[in-house]
Design goal:
Number of helices: 6
CATH topology: Rossmann fold
Low-confidence stretches: 189-193
Strand content: 15-25%
Structural class: alpha/beta
Mean pLDDT: 92
Number of domains: 1
Radius of gyration: 15 Å
Order of helices and strands: EHEHHEHHEHEE
């Protein structure tokens, strides 16, 4: 059975507002998913804001041994300097305990599947959905970016630290789709876009 997927948009930068957003998110997630440690894994875009959001909002999962894996397909969808990440060696030095072994060797270059063209971004979103469907975890908590989330779920824009919960299904064409479990999705109060 495919995992339940919790998609989270990162918090604002690490200043008071971003830290407060992360604390609010942590409290909400821990209350809503107290057993999320069993058979779960955290998947994160290898960019600073997403890594920081994991550190400051999912510490309760990290403390319980939930592993973190960085995947290049979850990075932001532009080639703007703020959306281009660091080399794997830097990431491993700065984020010990996170698994960067699954990063595509071309990362952080914005080429091929990671290019900023709309067609390419949609292809990458399909690859990300397919990857989710192939996982055997009970749940996957994914921390990523608003622009890319829009392509993955083909739905409304996420705001900072908003999360939505999905089940994985295949449509009539056999393509992977994420179907929102609305009762488990939250728009965190007190945060902005």
């Amino acid at each position: 059975m495919p995992p339940v997927v919790i998609l989270i948009r990162h918090a604002q930068a690490l200043h008071n507002k971003g830290i407060n957003q992360c604390q609010t998110l942590a409290n909400q997630l821990e209350a809503d998913f107290p057993h999320a440690t069993e058979g779960c894994r955290i998947v994160v875009s290898p960019l600073s804001r997403t890594l920081q959001t994991v550190q400051h909002s999912l510490g309760w999962l990290l403390d319980r041994g939930v592993p973190v894996v960085a995947r290049a397909e979850w990075q932001e969808d532009t080639a703007n300097p703020c959306d281009v990440g660091a080399d794997r060696s830097e990431l491993e030095k700065d984020w010990p305990g996170y698994d960067f072994s699954q990063l595509d060797p071309v990362y952080p270059q914005k080429i091929g599947l990671y290019g900023p063209e709309e067609k390419t971004i949609r292809e990458r979103a399909a690859v990300a959905r397919k990857w989710l469907a192939e996982q055997t975890d009970k749940c996957l908590v994914v921390v990523t970016h608003s622009g890319f989330l829009n392509r993955v779920v083909q739905g409304p824009r996420y705001r900072n630290v908003e999360y939505r919960t999905y089940k994985i299904e295949r449509n009539d064409s056999g393509e992977v789709e994420l179907v929102e479990l609305a009762e488990q999705s939250k728009d965190i109060p007190g945060r902005e876009e």
